[in-house]
Write a structure and sequence with these properties.
Oligomer: single chain
Shape: globular
Number of strands: 2
Low-confidence stretches: none
Largest sheet: 2 strands, antiparallel
Order of helices and strands: HHEEHHHHHHHHHHHHHHHHHHHHHHH
Radius of gyration: 29 Å
Mean pLDDT: 86
Length: 607
């Protein structure tokens, strides 16, 4: 299992080389180093999986050892972590290749690739972790790396602010994650995943402790996976380079919360008070993200709010105990959302940085391969039959509809509305970008290099392949996650019929709006349901006022400054008393020395 550590540490080596010596290397050398090490990890993982039984736990060293708690720095490779590792390394490597041309000529080219490698290292550590503490290191690491990547062009204030916003909001969620770890360690005397899952299923497990720990861990997941009310960082993360958006929003960081809950799904199956909360928050997040996406004009922000919405879909599935459909949607979403982001990046690159979809148009003839890739990704996102998105979305809807709780019907209706809104906004975006329009730019397009085209085409093909071949059925048996829902007979016909009807209607409306050039932007959607206003104008202003009036005037002046002045007075008083001993008489100094020597002799012989 030592190869597992090589797979993990290869990207770290790339980070160190480009980070320490990249400024002395040529751009091609930096790109080669940045791409080579993730590809080495991917090839080694593929080879070892193909030729040998590579599963198991690998312990590097014992990290912490108490009387009742031992924590190892250990990695675990099973079917779930192997699937996630392939997603991270596969899509991550394609994004690295894409970046070699997208970032061509950037002054900080080496720094960019060092950050990408660092991100992959921490993401692999997160998915391969055998316990919550190792996962937490990876969890915090991807937060740090995402902060560096989102604010990569830090000289622009908006970019630096967006990176800081992502970092701070994620730290709020991480407080919950830490509290969940502490509760599990206290109650079960372990933070090992397998041991927690076994202990949670026993009769001796406290239902209160299980629900409390599951709730706090879910708060951590809300921060990392952009769920209400901690979703506000993700759309602003669009200020970073577009490949970074693909890496963060498609395959890796934002899915960490879903992965963590699936990893602990036996614990969550016992957390009966928390699962309904997860389902409700996930559904509301899905609906909110889809509504806001319908009025966005920035192509990257459309996809960003789409990601918020699709993550909500996954959490809704987790909340009804549909752990496999959630993982299936995570898997399919990774491919088609990466396709959409990289395709959008190519469009922005070709249009010399233009991101407003209302200033595009007519790109179908100018960028035919990109049009096909964006179309395939859009069909998957809209859930059109024979695509991967259709299979995973319908699985979530059918499981939600078949759930036994009274609220499941309401959740199903809201998720169906979300599906229709999804078809609407992605269709509108496609029509505005690629259909002929008088608003389209007449400037010559910037050439798109083959290194940018290849990853987009590969991801687009993979998005469709998952739907055409019976990969979902294979995945269900492969992951072997616990099942708690039996699909109702009528769901197999009712749900697809409703979903397809609503989506077809939404696509038709999107086409009419595009042709008629209608632009309706309700104020509440334009302001993103006023979440940013609430945080910035209410919470932050209240906090600033509290700091100014309470902390500054009372705590700082009357406590801290008073303590400092008191210490000064004490030192002055003591020094004045000491000066009384220095009267300038030699016989007095000799007496003091003799007294000190006498005390030392007494202490030496009698103490």
């Amino acid at each position: 299992m030592s190869e597992l550590f090589l797979i993990l540490f290869f990207p770290l080596v790339g980070f160190l080389i480009n980070g320490l010596w990249g400024s002395r290397l040529q751009e091609k050398s930096c790109a080669l180093i940045g791409c080579a090490f993730p590809l080495l990890s991917l090839f080694l993982l593929t080879y070892k999986t193909a030729v040998s039984d590579f599963y198991g736990v690998s312990i590097l060293f014992t990290w912490v050892s108490f009387e009742n708690l031992t924590i190892d720095f250990a990695l675990k490779l099973d079917h779930l972590s192997l699937l996630m590792s392939f997603i991270v390394l596969g899509i991550g490597s394609l994004i690295h290749i894409y970046s070699t041309k997208y970032m061509h000529g950037d002054q900080s080219f080496a720094r960019y690739f060092s950050y990408l490698n660092l991100f992959l290292f921490f993401m692999l550590l997160l998915v391969l972790a055998n316990n919550l503490l190792v996962m937490f290191i990876g969890w915090e690491g991807v937060g740090l790396a995402s902060y560096l990547l989102i604010g990569f062009w830090y000289k622009e204030n908006e970019n630096a602010s967006s990176g800081a916003k992502a970092f701070i909001v994620n730290r709020i969620g991480d407080i919950g994650f830490l509290l969940g770890i502490f509760i599990l360690a206290f109650h079960f005397q372990t933070i090992n995943f397998d041991e927690i899952n076994r202990a949670a299923s026993t009769a001796n497990a406290s239902a209160t402790m299980i629900n409390l720990s599951a709730l706090f861990l879910f708060i951590g997941a809300c921060g990392k996976s952009a769920q209400l009310p901690l979703h506000v960082w993700l759309p602003d993360a669009m200020t970073g380079p577009t490949p970074v958006s693909a890496l963060i929003h498609a395959a890796t960081m934002v899915t960490a919360g879903i992965y963590m809950i699936v990893r602990l799904h036996p614990l969550y199956m016992q957390a009966t008070a928390v699962l309904p909360l997860i389902a409700v928050i996930g559904t509301l997040t899905a609906l909110l993200g889809a509504l806001v996406a319908t009025v966005q004009s920035d192509i990257k922000r459309v996809l960003a709010y789409s990601t918020v919405s699709q993550l909500g879909y996954m959490f809704a599935a987790l909340g009804v105990g549909a752990f496999y459909p959630a993982m299936l949607h995570l898997f399919t979403h990774a491919f088609f959302k990466a396709t959409l982001f990289l395709s959008a990046g190519a469009i922005i690159h070709a249009l010399h940085g233009e991101q407003d979809i209302y200033k595009m148009g007519g790109l179908a003839k100018k960028m035919p391969w990109n049009m096909v890739a964006f179309l395939l990704g859009s069909l998957c996102l809209a859930g059109v039959p024979l695509t991967s998105g259709f299979i995973s979305k319908e699985a979530i809807l059918m499981h939600t509809y078949s759930h036994s709780h009274s609220y499941s019907q309401t959740l199903t209706i809201l998720l169906l509305i979300t599906a229709a809104l999804t078809a609407f906004y992605i269709s509108k975006t496609f029509f505005l970008v690629f259909l002929p329009s008088k608003n389209g730019s007449e400037k010559p397009l910037h050439a798109i290099a083959f290194a940018m085209s290849l990853p987009v085409i590969a991801l687009a093909i993979l998005s469709i392949v998952v739907g055409l071949f019976h990969i979902p059925a294979f995945m269900e048996n492969y992951l072997n996650l616990a099942k708690s829902i039996t699909i109702k007979e009528e769901a197999h016909i009712l749900i697809p019929a409703l979903s397809l009807s609503l989506s077809a209607f939404a696509i038709a409306i999107a086409y009419l709006i595009t042709v008629k050039q209608i632009k309706i932007v309700p104020k509440i959607l334009e302001q993103k349901f006023y979440f940013d206003h609430l945080y910035e104008k209410v919470l932050l202003s209240t906090l600033r006022a509290f700091c100014k009036r309470v902390l500054a005037t009372i705590f700082e002046v009357k406590i801290i400054e008073a303590a400092i002045w008191s210490m000064r007075d004490l030192v002055l008083f003591s020094s004045r008393r000491v000066t009384l001993l220095t009267n300038g008489q030699i016989q007095w100094y000799v007496l003091l020395i003799l007294m000190a020597l006498s005390l030392l002799m007494v202490w030496w012989f009698y103490v």
